[in-house]
């Protein structure tokens, strides 16, 4: 469980947005997959709100840690 928390802390906005776009999801769909509101997705994407470790963990649960790592290499 500790590695998951460490990974969860490393998510940034660029990675968050790229994962959404690669999944073919709009903000409403992405929010539904993550169990958060569309407005929160929008605020994260514009930098108004930070990506919490909880939200980062939800992204990893939905898309898988291996996929997230691959996408992270693309956005660096």
What is the secondary structure topology, with strand pairs?
Elements: H1 2-9, H2 13-22, H3 27-34, H4 38-45, H5 53-63, H6 65-75
Helix pairs in contact: 1-5, 2-6, 3-4, 5-6
Q: What report would you give on this structure?
A:
It is a single chain. This protein has 76 residues and is mainly α. It has one domain (2-75): 434 Repressor (Amino-terminal Domain) (Orthogonal Bundle). Helix content is 74%, strand content 0%. α3 (27-34) packs across α4 and α5 packs across α6.
Radius of gyration: 11 Å
CATH domain class: Mainly Alpha
The total tally of domains equals: 1
Structural class: mainly alpha
Total E-strand runs: 0
Helical fraction equals over 70%
Major beta sheet summary? none
**Strand content of the residues, in percent?**
under 5%
Shape verdict: globular
CATH architecture: Orthogonal Bundle
The helix count comes to 6
Query: Which stretches are poorly predicted, pLDDT < 50 over at least 5 residues?
Result: 1-8
Question: What is the H/E order?
Answer: HHHHHH
- Looking at the structure, the CATH topology is 434 Repressor (Amino-terminal Domain)
Distance between the termini: 25 Å
């Amino acid at each position: 469980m500790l590695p998951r928390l460490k990974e969860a802390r490393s998510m940034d906005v660029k990675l968050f947005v790229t994962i959404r776009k690669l999944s073919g999801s709009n903000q409403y769909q992405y929010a539904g997959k993550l169990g958060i509101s569309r407005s929160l997705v929008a605020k994260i994407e514009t930098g108004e709100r930070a990506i919490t470790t909880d939200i980062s963990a939800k992204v990893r649960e939905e898309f898988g840690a291996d996929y997230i790592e691959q996408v992270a290499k693309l956005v660096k």
